[in-house]
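Deliverable D2.4 — example input (structure tokens):
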């Protein structure tokens, strides 16, 4: 039997291929504490690389299957997260003891208030940790279902397809790219965290002002 580490993208892809992409992206897109620790960006990008067929090690994945599974997982996961938020999401967030979950939920609420529903739901998809709590928070805040469905679908498809196709393009153009996969994944993670920097600066400025 193959031992699978659900937090290790290489392990998930080797064991389940495109189906693993669907399940992990689904969970990460709205199952709160469960999805909070699962790979998203770090699964989609390597999956795209493996679709190019130039990696030295298996598995070899089908591009169309990965794209479809990634889109389905992102969109359906977002809807489930929204429903969780609509039916007891605030109580669930209040019961969690994880400071990271509570902090991400507060950032999600500020994002929705600052940018409006449409822009926040698209931007939030590209930010790790935030995208897991954004959909339940939107449900808890009573974001209209039609508005939520439209913009979370746009964000989910854009996020999932962009990362897979970026990995595929790089994998098809650079020989033996799997030799550099780990540092490339680290770069993807760093880039995905960049949208949080302005908020972090504002939070530090607010703390300084409150001490005066």
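Example output (designed residues):
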């Amino acid at each position: 039997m193959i031992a699978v580490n659900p937090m290790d993208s290489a392990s998930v892809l080797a064991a389940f291929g495109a189906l693993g992409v669907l399940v992990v992206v689904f969970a990460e897109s709205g199952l709160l504490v469960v999805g909070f620790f699962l790979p998203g960006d770090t699964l989609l990008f390597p999956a795209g690389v493996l679709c190019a067929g130039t990696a030295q090690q298996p598995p070899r994945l089908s591009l169309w299957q990965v794209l479809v599974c990634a889109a389905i997982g992102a969109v359906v996961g977002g809807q489930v997260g929204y429903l969780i938020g609509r039916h007891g999401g605030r109580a669930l967030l209040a019961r969690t003891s994880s400071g990271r979950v509570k902090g991400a939920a507060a950032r999600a609420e500020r994002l929705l208030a600052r940018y409006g529903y449409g822009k926040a739901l698209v931007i939030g998809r590209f930010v790790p940790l935030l995208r897991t709590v954004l959909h339940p928070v939107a449900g808890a805040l009573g974001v209209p279902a039609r508005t939520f469905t439209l913009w979370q679908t746009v964000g989910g498809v854009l996020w999932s397809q962009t990362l897979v196709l970026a990995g595929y393009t790089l994998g098809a153009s650079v020989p033996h790219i799997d030799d550099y996969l780990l540092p490339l994944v680290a770069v993807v993670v760093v880039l995905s965290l960049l949208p949080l920097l302005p908020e972090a600066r504002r939070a530090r400025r607010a703390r300084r002002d409150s001490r005066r």
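The first helix runs from residue 9 to 16.
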